[in-house]
Write a structure and sequence with these properties.
Elements lengths: L1 H26 L2 H26 L4 H24 L6 H28 L5 H29 L2 H11 L1 H8 L15 H10 L4 H16 L6 H8 L3 H21 L10 H28 L13 H32 L2 H29 L7 H20 L1 H4 L9
Helix pairs in contact: 1-2, 1-5, 1-6, 1-7, 2-4, 2-8, 2-14, 3-4, 3-6, 3-7, 4-14, 5-6, 5-11, 5-13, 8-14, 9-12, 9-13, 9-14, 9-15, 10-11, 11-13, 12-13, 12-15
């Protein structure tokens, strides 16, 4: 499952970067790029909630396999649209929405399977291993996407993703069947509502979700990167690939050296501190963009024309943000998988997936709207400050989160 997810993840990053660059090439609008997230938001939320109900009702392996077939078909369709030189935006928005919906359901089912494969004390290590895979795919994928789009074009980039996606079927097919524990349930609205109601009596899980909503909504500057590469730092698509990969480098490095994280018992406090560090990194990234905007300099579409000091500083800060986000993810996932009972795990994982994937999409819209001011530095500067304050306040008012003990996990 890990190998298949890793290879497929690298391919998925090709498409994520390529779609943004494709739309920006057609429109020269950051807002148009951010609309990818806006159109996919509601379907993705529904997919996460319903996918969680499916994962608590049927064999989780089969749910993941069927959703993967749909996701693969959407990538094939994106490649076809590009090869046919279709210039309308709606097919791109529609197909990436389908891809997002299906990928969300795959992720929900996969994550609900993990605690059934390993012992509870190994969950932090599994989270670190997942972070390592994420670091690799986010390092290799966006950098490769930047080079492929610049020198081969978006059509070949989509096509390569379609080929790499075949690894997902290997990774999922080799899993054992994983039926949820407890009585069999029908995946309906009542089942979904029961999962949401569970959060009412789960203050630690609820607080972790809330902290992550702030972090993912206000701390994701990805839709700014095409404009940053074109107008501010320079370097075009290659700069976009470098900055996107910088986040992944931080994720990968902290995952490799994360062994001691498994011995931390106060995981709620550790998670909140990591989110504060994440917000501070995003705030400083906005500061770098502000300084770059104030200092006169020439930029061009080639990497040789980029402002190297600004590119280096921005890359280091984004790497630090990736490292901090990954540490918070390890503790957040561990708390979710250890404290939530198996019969409820799919639905809670679905809600969590909505938070993790929906937050950045709301954040994309937030960044896109603020970018209309032409102040590219403003969204990350403000967003980083909001994250730091929100995480500190939530930790302060949630006593049970401060007292959370990994040896006695309570939701």
């Amino acid at each position: 499952m890990w190998i298949g997810g890793l290879i497929t993840g690298i391919g998925s990053q090709l498409t994520i970067v390529a779609v943004g660059l494709h739309i920006y090439e057609l429109t020269a609008s950051t807002l148009a790029v951010s609309l990818v997230a806006a159109f996919a938001l509601v379907p993705m939320i529904l997919a996460g909630l319903y996918g969680g109900a499916l994962a608590d009702s049927f064999d989780r392996r089969k749910v993941a396999l069927l959703a993967a077939v749909v996701a693969w078909g959407s990538v094939l369709a994106l490649a076809s649209v590009s090869w046919l030189d279709v210039t309308q935006l709606w097919p791109l928005y529609a197909l990436i929405t389908v891809n997002t919906v299906a990928s969300t359901m795959v992720h929900v089912a996969r994550q609900a399977i993990v605690p059934r494969l390993i012992r509870r004390e190994l969950l932090p290590a599994a989270g670190a291993l997942g972070g390592m895979a994420g670091g690799i795919m986010l390092t290799v994928g966006p950098a490769l996407a930047g080079v492929l789009v610049a020198y081969a074009g978006v059509s070949w980039t989509y096509t390569i993703d379609a080929v790499l996606f075949l690894a997902a079927f290997y990774g999922l097919y080799t899993l054992p069947g994983t039926l949820p524990e407890g009585e069999k349930r029908k995946p309906n609205l009542r089942t979904i509502v029961d999962g949401i109601r569970f959060l009412k009596h789960a203050p630690n899980i609820r607080a972790s979700f809330l902290i992550d909503i702030f972090a993912m909504t206000f701390g994701n500057p990805r839709v700014l990167l095409p404009a940053v590469g074109a107008l501010l730092i320079g370097g075009g698509a290659v700069t976009v690939g470098i900055l996107t990969s910088a986040v992944a480098v931080g994720v990968l490095l902290i995952s490799v050296f994360s062994g001691r994280l498994g011995g931390i018992r106060r995981q709620g406090i550790a998670m909140a501190i990591a989110v504060v560090a994440y917000g501070a990194s995003i705030l400083l990234f906005g500061g770098v963009l502000l300084v770059t905007a104030l200092v006169p300099h020439d930029v061009g579409p080639d990497i040789a024309d980029a402002s190297l000091p600004a590119l280096l500083a921005a890359s280091v800060l984004l790497a630090l943000s990736g490292a901090a986000d990954n540490v918070s993810m390890i503790f957040r996932n561990t708390m979710l998988q250890a404290a939530v009972p198996d019969e409820m795990r799919g639905r809670l994982q679905g809600i969590f997936t909505v938070v993790v994937t929906g937050g950045p999409r709301v954040g994309d819209l937030y960044v896109g709207v603020l970018s209309l001011t032409a102040l590219l530095w403003f969204p990350p500067l403000l967003g980083g400050l909001v994250i730091v304050v929100a995480a500190a306040v939530i930790l302060r008012v949630t006593r049970s989160l401060r007292e959370y003990d990994a040896l006695d996990p309570q939701p």
